[in-house]
Amino acid sequence: MDSLSNGDSAATAAATATSIPQQSKLTHLVESLKLEHQLLRVPFEHFKKSMRFNHRILEKEMSAVISSVTEAADRDMSKEEAVDHLTSLVSRLQGLKRKLEEGSRTENLQAQRCRARLDHLGPAQTENVSEWNNTRVKRILVDYMLRMSYYDTAVKLAESNNIQDLVDIDVFQEAKKVIDALQNKEVAPALAWCAENRSRLKKSKSKFEFQLRLQEFIELVRADNNLQAITYTRKYLAPWGATHMKELQRVMATLAFKSNTECATYKVLFEPKQWDYLVEHFKQEFCRLYGMTLEPLLNIYLQAGLSALKTPFCYEEDCTKEDPLSQESFRKLAMPLPFSKQHHSKLVCYITKELMDTENPPLVLPNGYVYSTKALEEMASKKNGKVTCPRTGVVCNYSELVKAFIS
């Protein structure tokens, strides 16, 4: 019975020891999932957008068909006219059916993408955290490439790793059309995008459509089409007067100053960089619409990691080479970031890289440098009681060392 009890205790202890690292991994993963808001939000927003679009098509077409039927019922039609009218209605309904089928496929694709991402974040993934993290790194790289307009490379990386359902290539392809048009100084696709998302842009008090209209007005002034510019103002800019009068007045003044003005206030409105501002403005509005971070995820993770590693010691000459911030390239990246907030300091031995604590207390050499007892005892045993400072080369007796107390 005693041997059986001892066996049970050993098994319990082994199970407990195994569960501790598993629990630690699970806790780490749960913390990581807090950063995955965008992963679920983007396909969900895209799914809702597809549903709204299909619903609008259905309402529009059915309203037109019902109106046409009502109008036909009130008219005195011949048999041939009635047949032609009904044939036209059937053709229209068949077209609606095709649109709805296509819309249904799109919705199913978005629902499948949401399900794939939920499965990716599910508890089953805790079995292989390393593989899950590798997939996350690839997702972050694809996100960065898409934001930087490296679309072909992003597609190849996603396909080669079979993570198409975990990245937002189709969403960014939608944005690419607008960005390309703005870079070619065309606003029509951007205005169409604003029309598709008008209710949500209005809710967020977006000025993007107004900025597009101002740029169209500026281009008319640049081309000396003043009469057309005035007509354009009455039709498209006047409704914004109640909320953006100052900007409107400034732009209207370009009718008098012309595009070749040297007045800095108005000259800047005709500079090519205004189109670059529109591209950046669109990217921000696009990210807000889909619940994306305004910064690429790669930047956010890098900044968080570098800030966590950054301490004043990293910028000293004797900074250990094991510290990533000992490299000049990492130092430059970390320069604008805040130092890590350390609630509890840790002393690590320069020689053994082991923690110095009450079990392995620090010892101070006559020159003021501190190393662990374990490292210095081992050194003294090999050199007849002598220890050598690895950083300054000073040699002294082990008996000269003074114990430092950690408070």
Walk me through what this model shows.
Mean pLDDT is 85; it is low at 1-22. The chain has four domains: 37-120; 173-294, no CATH class; 298-334, no CATH class; 348-403, Herpes Virus-1 (2-Layer Sandwich), CATH 3.30.40. It is elongated. Helix 4 (129-147) runs antiparallel to helix 5 (151-160), helix 6 packs antiparallel against helix 14 and helix 9 (208-222) runs antiparallel to helix 14 (273-290). It contains 17 helices and seven strands. It has helices spanning 2-33, 37-74, 79-120, 129-147, 151-160, 169-183, 188-196, 198-203, 208-222, 226-237, 245-252, 254-257, 264-267, 273-290, 297-309, 328-334, 373-382; strands spanning 347-348, 355-356, 362-364, 370-372, 386-388, 395-397, 402-403. With 407 residues, it is mostly helical. The strands form three sheets. The protein has a three-stranded antiparallel beta sheet with strand order 4-3-7. A two-stranded antiparallel sheet has the order 1-2.
